[in-house]
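Supplementary Text 2. Reproducibility record for the structural model of the 105-residue chain.

All settings were left at their defaults, and a single model was retained for analysis rather than an ensemble. We include the record here because the model underlies the residue-level annotations in Supplementary Table 4.
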Amino acid sequence: MSEIANTPEPPYYAVIFSSYRTEGDNGYSEMAERMVELASEQPGFLGIESARENVGITVSYWVSLEAITNWKKNVEHQEAQRLGHQQWYSSFRVRVAKVEREYGI
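Retained model, structure tokens:
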């Protein structure tokens, strides 16, 4: 994921996932790739951006709060969340924000 998401004119929503990982991969990389693939198939998904140095930050973009709720209810996503709680993250936060304005070059 090295591209900046190509999002539509606001308003839309951003889910910001900030995390600290535990040691070792333990299947994380494979699951992370699957979650990007699966999210991109969900109705209302607009794009995703991710970076990891010390803290990992992934921002996914959605057309509505309903689309975000439906993604949260996805069975495979719920399994990834469970594994994240149990073995992949020492700490994390999820924030949901409404994007009202955007600009750039």
